[in-house]
Amino acid sequence: MNEQEYDQRLRIETIEMQHLYGVFSHYNRYEPTPYAALDELCETYPFQKQDTVIDFGCGKGRLNFYLHDRFDCSVIGIEMNGQFYEDALRNMANYESRRKRRSGSLRFEQAYAEQYVIPDEANKFYFFNPFSSQIFMKVIDQILSSVERSSRSVDLILYYPTDEYREYLERHTVFEQVDEIRLRDLYEKNHDERFVIYRFDPNKLLQNGYEYSDEKNRG
């Protein structure tokens, strides 16, 4: 299916790319992840029904509806722009009106990502370069604070990852890269066309002989 056909099947509208203007210098334009890229990600990377996924800078909610429809997992979309948030709610009304009720929850929240308090059940976090590296660092701190409150393994899923995001994770955090998914037909032309998966596993830290708080202080 092409982009329009996928949107029609889910009863949503997410195709149009839009820019942010004015005071939002740390936030990037709205650009949904291509459906073809999501198909390739999900062929390799295991989403489970019991997952709770947070999409930062969710825009109109494409990833949210895609994962909820395909895996029946819980998905939370975080969006600071009021118009995109309203678009996501409108899409949700259309999506839910034509589909059977699922066990996985689906919701959107209008909030600045760096101020959003991570729920203790969230275990997967999606980023398509929604904001500056400064905001990204603050969001990672929020995720790690959540892990301190409720110890669990969590994954970061980065599409089209920036060098700044990756350098911060690898030099200053406890996250380790566990996978890289290169998109067929695109990666050879553009090496940014990939997903990179980072994981924090508290059991691995304990096996290596130190506590999470010790590792955090090293950053």
UniProtKB/TrEMBL annotation:
Single GO MF descriptor: methyltransferase activity
Q: Name one GO biological process term.
A: methylation
Q: Give the highest taxon in the source lineage.
A: Bacteria
Q: Which Pfam families match?
A: Methyltransf_32
Q: Which InterPro entries match?
A: Methyltranfer_dom, SAM-dependent_MTases_sf
Name the UniProt record assigns to this protein: SAM-dependent methyltransferase
**Gene3D superfamilies in the record:** Vaccinia Virus protein VP39
Sorted keywords for this record are: Methyltransferase, Transferase
The Methyltransferase domain extends over 40-99
